[in-house]
Amino acid sequence: MASLRDTLGSLRMHRLRWEKLMQARAKMNAAAETGHPSHLREIIDFGTNPGELRMFTHVPPNVSAGCGLVVVLHGCQQTAAGYDLGAGWSTLAHRYGFALLLAEQQPANNPNRCFNWFLPGDMERGQGEALSIRQMVARMVSEHAVDPARIFITGLSAGGAMTAVMLATYPEVFAGGAIVGGLPYRAATCVQTAFETMFQCPPRPGPEWGDQVRRASPHRGPWPRLSVWHGGSDTTVIPPNAREICKQWTDVHGLSATPTFTETVDGYPREVWCNAAGEDVIESYTIPSMAHGTPIAVGKGDNQCGMAGAFLLDVGISSSYHIAKFWGLAVRPQAAAVSDETFAPAAPARSPVAVRQPAPAGAFARSAAADARQPIPSIQINAIIANALNAAGLTAETRAGRQINTVISNALKAAGLLKATPER
Asked: Is 144 helix (H, G, I), strand (E, B) or coil?
């Protein structure tokens, strides 16, 4: 029982810390959130959507066939519109002529609006939220003649961790990615290990990390380029996570663990790993005094965009601009500069501009009682059970462990307390 008590105590401590953070973030967002900017368009019908996410797009008028596409994933307690405005992606899309796809989490999936990057049913190829985002990309390619060779993805925090999921599970889809304040792929597979990695970040050897990516899909290269950004004073997702991300992807690319070179960009250190052809394949920025959030540089210069807000931190360097430049999207402006204020709503909106259409009967039907249940507590219960089984020597690899785990999981699902993997 000592092991179970330790597990309960650790989970309780991490959960309380996380809940305090989420409460603070919710208050800041409530003060700043004024509704969806009108330029975002919601797409309802984009596939089976097993992860039950929302899809928003923005295609500037100067975008032509064969354009690039950037997929943007928000952080916890954020919306697609709010993160787009703060990080400045719509400004860059207008300036450089590329399309935007913004996925949004729903409270019914996760009460803190976090993408479920730590749930096996959402972090694997062909399942859940990962498949929903893949279907969104397919819709954009078919509808807007996007260049399949110029599709990129980025996200903050849980969105950054979900970016790692997409790069690992669909590496053939993305030419590059950018993880901001995030975690490596399969750093966690339940709530407890998610908290442990966020706050403690147990190190693993590079080949072990790399194997997680190689096992995630049948793809064997070439692999996406990667930009990594992290605050040196981040206490929410501690900085060693950036190091582990770099270890994972340098191993996947077959590169040395030591950077090819380092330099200073806008006053901050940039580490770069190059391939045999001398091309920048992986880059990592650490903003020494920055806490958890996306680094931005507010202003009207070519290397400036965005608006400061909750977890959108004006530290004098625009991660969004430098990420777009790293991907080869920010080469030369194709349109006059657009102010970020253009995309900010002038007054509080009573409802989103894009109104969701009713889903087909039975498509995502849930009873009021089911909607009232939150998935996180059940996942915590499952994590506690798993640790108790491990302490008793009944791991998931043993027959007894599998039988017990199956019985408990079925009971939780029958009670509506465990998020089942959607059918494909």
From this structure: helix
Confirm whether 409 is a catalytic residue.
no
Hey, which residues does 297 pair with through a beta bridge? 305
Annotated catalytic residue within 90, 132, 157, 320: 157
The CB density around residue 35, as the number of other CB atoms within 10 Å, is 17
Structural domains of the chain sorted by starting position, each given as residue range(s) with its CATH number in brackets: 17-343 (3.40.50.1820), 370-424 (no CATH)
144-163 tens-digit pLDDT? 999 999 999 999 999 999 99
Closest among 196, 121, 397 to 389, alpha carbons compared: 397
Query: Phi and psi dihedrals of 79, rounded to 5?
Result: -115, 165
Alpha helices by DSSP H, listed for 220-367, are 240-253, 319-327
> Distance between CA atoms of 104 and 76, rounded to whole angstroms?
10
What's the pLDDT tens digit per position in 227-282?
A: 999 999 999 999 999 999 999 999 999 999 999 999 999 999 999 999 999 999 99
Give Cβ neighbours of residue 163 (< 8 Å, ≥ 6 apart). Answer: 73, 153, 154, 155, 177, 178, 179, 182
What span, in angstroms and rounded, lies between the C-alpha atoms of 191 and 158? Answer: 12
> Using alpha carbons only, what angle is made at residue 159 by residues 157 and 165, rounded to the nearest 5 degrees?
110
- Please give the model's pTM, rounded to 2 decimal places: 0.77
